[in-house]
Amino acid sequence: MKLYELVGCDPKKGFSPFVWRTKLALAHKGLNYETVPVTFTEIKETLAFAGSKTVPVLVDGENVISDSWDIACYLEDTYPDHPSLFGGDTGRAAANLLGIQVGMPVLFPLFRTLVADIHGRLNRIDQDYFRETREPRIDCTIEEAAVDFEGSLKVFQLGLASYNAYLKTSSFFSGEKPAYADYIIYSSFLWAKRTSPKVILDKDDPIAKWLERMDGLFNGLGAKVQLIEKD
Amino acid sequence: MKLYELVGCDPKKGFSPFVWRTKLALAHKGLNYETVPVTFTEIKETLAFAGSKTVPVLVDGENVISDSWDIACYLEDTYPDHPSLFGGDTGRAAANLLGIQVGMPVLFPLFRTLVADIHGRLNRIDQDYFRETREPRIDCTIEEAAVDFEGSLKVFQLGLASYNAYLKTSSFFSGEKPAYADYIIYSSFLWAKRTSPKVILDKDDPIAKWLERMDGLFNGLGAKVQLIEKD
């Protein structure tokens, strides 16, 4: 299998949270793959074959699948004898809902928190593209978001309140064992770890303890993730 | 089985959203029960036997269970041969998370929207208790919340955005068939329907279409719910 993943100035350090969802799903299923790095400005041409304007794109033999959610469903349906990502149809529906729910209260303020750090880890040509496409999303300049990052971080932490409350009763978002619901959340933290030196959690939060449990999975796949060095 | 449920001035019209979760769970499991009406000021004495300060309380033979989530888990574990509420352990974890997630962005602004209407449907003695215990939760008087109900309603509708987005891809929150995740959300609308004449949804919202599907379940259990008449 071949997985197209987004990179900045270091082609070995993919950072997209949606690609991380796929990498974790592949690890959960115990499937091998190689990665193909793509920068922001290469996406259009490189992923044209897949009819996709976004990463991840997965190529599995004859099959080309884009969108992290569609890829998760593809893996679950195509490899049913490997460990389940959803634990059944109800769990699949719930993971789909969670992937949508995490957007506005969690991913969006985290993006505003990280946006200047991400920008600083891109090649110059990608920086221009990133500014042009992302500033309209945050309704301010990257520099303004950088100045106000503590406000965004606070919104992000408030957005985690229900997740922290839940983790007082359970080890993982999928129950006793981690599965796709956990990867949806964990991918956001790997995104942050790759792109920013900022400390975004209080270490006593239940979600910080859960992160430690997640870091222990798949031979430390997430634990080994390092910050992209600035050029 | 005996289910203790909260009522206002009409002992036949229970309105607590958490009791509705249990009623829908019992209907889903195909289990029969009788209800015992309890008013706000009766709760302490009537439910002392259960060690609970809140409804619902379910009595099933020798077993006394309180808290809607614990009751759902009890029913699932005690009646495993009846239709499943969770569809497995992952679905159970997801329903637990959803029950927490729906609180702040959905239930809380809906409570502020309804609070004056609920107050108007209680007996005088319960009105005093309700004001004393609920005004601190909404950080204003009931009358102030009534004046600003459109603001609260807007927050509630914004809180439904991710649920509306999800329903563009699926019939029910539990997938192709309704289950406990759906009852968590549906119970909020039955609460509103019992206590308030306000129109709280745009009829073109995906969630309004889903409500119609939910109204068709269990011989119209929810469809038949009527507003409590003012005394």
Quaternary status of these chains?
A: homodimer
Helix and strand element order of chain A: EHEHEEHHHHHHHHH
Q: Beta-sheet strand percentage of chain A?
A: 5-15%
Q: What is the average per-residue confidence, as pLDDT of chain A, rounded to a whole number?
A: 97
Helical/strand content category of chain A: alpha+beta
Helix content of chain A: 40-55%
State the total count of DSSP E strands of chain A.
4
> Within the largest sheet of chain A, what's the order of strands?
2-1-3-4
Give the termini distance of chain A in whole angstroms. 31 Å
Determine the most extensive contact between two protein chains.
A-B, 33 and 33 residues
Notes on the protein architecture:
The structure is a homodimer of 231-residue chains. Chain A has 231 residues and is an alpha+beta fold. The first copy, chain A, contains 11 helices and 4 strands; from the N terminus they run βαβαββααααααααα. In chain A, strands 2-1-3-4 form a 4-stranded mixed beta sheet, covered by helices on one side. At the A-B interface, α4, α5 and α9 of A face α4, α5 and α9 of B.
Write the layout of secondary structure elements.
The structure is a homodimer of 231-residue chains.
Chain A: E1 2-6, H1 17-29, E2 34-38, H2 43-46, E3 57-60, E4 63-66, H3 68-78, H4 89-101, H5 103-119, H6 124-138, H7 142-147, H8 149-159, H9 161-166, H10 180-195, H11 206-215
Parallel strand pairs in A: 1-2
Antiparallel strand pairs in A: 1-3, 3-4
Helix pairs in contact in A: 1-3, 1-10, 4-10, 5-8
